[in-house]
Design goal:
By secondary structure, this protein is of the alpha/beta class. It folds into two domains: about 220 residues, P-loop containing nucleotide triphosphate hydrolases (Rossmann fold); about 120 residues, Orthogonal Bundle (Helicase, Ruva Protein, domain 3). It is built from 15 helices and 13 strands. A five-stranded parallel sheet has the order 3-6-9-1-10. It has a two-stranded parallel ribbon with strand order 2-11. The protein has a two-stranded antiparallel sheet with strand order 4-5. A hairpin with a 4-residue loop joins strand 4 and strand 5. Helix 10 packs parallel to helix 12.
Length: about 350
């Protein structure tokens, strides 16, 4: 059981996250929502998938987030000839010891950057399945634990780009959030030319948080309270994807769990010790859309998964909020999903 000494206070959490956010935004200009989503995934013990066209800073975002934290970082450049053993590791016969010795692969790091993950074959991509879900690797019947914290930050180009493979459904489902960076606005792009034009901003980037701090923040997020009404709202949203006529594959129970964890992390980032329906709403598209498969007819009608999730959000009843002007505090007149908070962080 986690003790109070193993968790950070909400004040410590917001202070540490603010340092990381400032560090990342010093390199990734004009994308505060993308940075916040990335930090949400980090604190929620998830994995991040960054999908966009080439040249918009996908790899830069992944590398900046990794360098802002003092932890072990490995990068995997996914190519068609990459082998599963290059990722997980391999057992090699040691002539002197007369025994097999395990050589860890690139997955044995606290933050793993998978660059252009959809350029590798499905067989190689499947090498990540166990590590992303169970945080361990099994080689020749021997199981090896991965370090803590552990996060995979993968980038990929849209499937329309040449030389890409679509990610298997099981692989996509293990990513908590998919984000798209998008093109910068003119002012941010002009600032980028000033900052990146002469030097690489990563050269001077120094860690602003330690791995053990992140571990404490994760424990704090685990303690964020989610009342039954909010949990029910998340379940209703996910269940609606399984019966929607425009979808041939809805979201899995893992998606429900990821949505709940992300909502808790979002609440903590906002300085709250309890999650609100607003947290679930704000994250639903980022958490659910990449897991869904539209029907052939929906694709012909140019209906996207994001549009379907937005429609579900509009049609699913939201738990009632407070009836008094006291806001969402812990006092009289607040809704049950706030009042039921079992303990303060």
């Amino acid at each position: 059981m986690t003790t109070y000494d193993e968790r950070a206070s909400l004040t410590d959490l917001t202070s540490t996250v603010e340092r990381i956010r400032s560090s990342v935004e010093g390199v990734i200009e004009g994308k505060p929502e993308v940075v916040r989503l990335s930090l949400t995934v980090l604190l929620a013990e998830g994995h991040l998938l960054i999908e966009d066209v080439p040249g918009v800073g996908k790899t830069m975002l992944a590398k900046t987030l990794a360098r802002s934290i003092d932890c072990s970082v490995r990068r995997i450049q996914f190519t068609p000839d990459l082998l599963p053993s290059d990722i997980t590791g391999v057992s090699i016969w040691d002539q002197q010891r007369r025994d097999f010795e395990f050589k860890p692969g690139a997955i044995f790091a606290q933050i793993v950057i998978g660059d252009e993950i959809n350029r590798a074959s499905p067989k190689t991509q499947s090498a990540l399945l166990e590590s992303m879900e169970e945080r361990q690797v099994t080689i020749d019947g021997q199981t090896y634990e991965l370090p803590t914290p552990f996060m995979v930050v993968a980038t990929q180009n849209p499937v329309e780009m040449e030389g890409t493979y679509p990610l298997p459904e099981a692989q996509r489902d293990r990513f908590m959030v998919r984000v798209s960076i998008g093109y910068p606005n003119p002012d941010a792009e002009l600032q980028m030319l000033d900052v990146h034009g002469g030097v690489n901003p990563l050269d001077d980037l120094q860690p602003v948080a330690h791995a053990h701090e992140i571990t404490k923040l994760i424990e704090t997020v685990r303690g964020v309270h989610v009342a039954e009404t909010v949990r029910r709202y998340a379940v209703d949203l996910v269940a609606a994807t399984r019966t929607h006529p425009d979808l041939r594959l809805g979201a899995s129970p893992r998606a429900t769990l990821h949505l709940l964890r992300a909502a808790k992390a979002s609440a903590a980032l906002s300085g709250r010790e309890y999650a609100l329906p607003d947290d679930v709403q704000a994250l639903a598209v980022a958490v659910l859309a990449h897991r869904l498969l539209p029907t052939a007819q929906a694709q012909l009608n140019r209906r996207t998964s994001e549009q379907v999730v937005q429609e579900i959000l509009r049609s699913t009843p939201v738990p009632a909020g407070p009836q008094q002007s006291g806001g969402f505090g812990l006092g009289h007149g607040t809704p049950a999903y706030v009042r039921q908070t079992p303990r303060r962080l």
